[in-house]
Specification:
heterodimer, A: alpha+beta, 5-stranded antiparallel beta sheet, 4-stranded antiparallel beta sheet, 23% strand, B: alpha+beta, 17 strands, globular
Amino acid sequence: MKFDFTKVQFNSGLMLSEMERRGITLEVIDGTDIVKAMYKEHEELLIDVFSSVYPFTTSWIVNDKYLTKKKLVELGVRVAEGKVFGATKVQEMAEYAKEIGYPVVLKPVSGGHGEYVFSGIGSEDDLRRKIELMGGYRDGGWILLEKHVNGEEYRVFMTEQGFLAAVHRTPAQVVGDGTQSILNLIQKENFLRMNPRQNCLCEIKLDEVMFEFLRKNSMSLVDTIPENGEMVQLRASSNVSMGGNCVDVTDSVHESVRHLATSIMKGFEGMRYIGMDLICEDITKSLIQQQFVVCELNVAPGLSLHMLPAEGQSRNVAAALVDLLYPETRK
Amino acid sequence: MKLTYKRISQMPPAQQLLMFVLMRRGVELEVLNGTEIIRGKLNNIERNILGGYTSLVPLSVGMVLTNKYFTRQVLTHARIDVAKGRVFAPDQHRQAGWYAEEELSYPVMIRQENSQRDDKALMNLHSRKEVVAAYCKLAMLGENILVEQMVEGTKLLISASSDGYVGAWQVEILPELKIPDQTRSIIRSEMKRLTLLAGDFQMKPNRSAHLPFEYQHRLYSRLPECIDAAFVKNVGQRVLKAFPGLPTVTFEVIVPDRKHSHDSSFVVTEVFHSVGPVMFMQLQNTDTQKRGVDVLADLLF
């Protein structure tokens, strides 16, 4: 029976179709989004792109931004200076921010897709307001406060077998036409992105983080009408799931980035692939000659970023993952 | 931070035993600062242990095992019987009551979808009214709730490993601890009184915040006559196979009272992660016998 790809999410669908292409039998377990994959005697359970390739306990560390940071420091990897606070410790956060110097970034310790991430916070008033907006973040209220690092944002995917893919990510933005409000421009852009969806770009999300970003830049979603050709940045973070853009840069990645990804992978128990968020000045140049930090690692890196970038060549990261999971099907 | 004896003494008994066995083997143990994660190092091998999980558990299987609904569905897919039941949202107490009344037969049990802690299971419910009342109590914790048929029969705890070891204990639920609405302080006072009885092993209960499996059950290493080694081996390997990549599995099964000698039916009621009562259990493969803790330690290092 043909596998029904409408039953699974976009990201896992990319991996599953690669598996099906290799003759791996797929079955959805009734009433769940768990997929059972079978190739001869080799069986696997898959949830999204989570598989047996990653140890459960390592995922707990990687899903915790602070633990990851500590581990990276232990490995000698550069990370942004930062500390964890309970969401109610506003005064302590303000004092720490003063100590490390503004601008700073606030993010929940656990969580993904750039949700509740506020970057470029420039003053104590601004910091207090952002903490309030985080609303004692649901995850037991733990917040990571970090020094803001300027630079370009990249997502680097690599496997232990040496496959590498990288994209340059930029924050969501719209281009004005002199007649429409920012809200209308976003709605128009979202419609174009989704009808039909042709690449990894997601809808530009309207949330508190965006409203706050626009407010800070003296703009309003409804009242501001950007001039013809004017580029309006909508948030500071570049997450694609929040509407950010991404361009493949794999061919120009400097060898030092590959070394960095390899050494991190070796440092985390059982990690056989890495989805690394890197901020640096220029990924084509040696990391030794520039400022850079590793922001976070991802247990379930988005495959579509690399396979269907908005610009540039498609990289088959799904095949690289299936090579790890079912090496016997590798060609 | 080095793992201290004080810290070990605060762990549940099964984890304590694993820590001591690893230390005896020369494994360096440390706690990852500010967390519950224990990191073991021996030569070039590094392993993380977190609660009942070790780094031998694959991510996708670990995600399945932390959710009772997922676990039931995976077992069903592997053609292994589970108790009849259904998951309801926290606000669906009425639907849960009617489901118990119309679809199940009493007694019924309810438990949280995402917990392996037995203090979050309420058993022996005999009417719709009792189900709804118990449901409302558990629903306050805000998680989905599983409403299940209680199965009559001989209860066994079986453990199996990927290298062929299997073992089983008979389980008896201690009647003193059946009362569903007892407070934690009562549970703790009970814990002082109870001891684990398993083969030759005896241990005094610790004062952990919740009640570990060992203190709610009495475990017998001698099995009833109707359960033979071949049955245990078959059941153990079938359940292990349902979770590909998992090196060891421990689970509870009910073997219904047999009507025919060839009847080999069983119902799986719970699947545990690897560190648990099995640590104390004697497991057997074709020619050797080992404690569960040694089987796991061999797999880890």
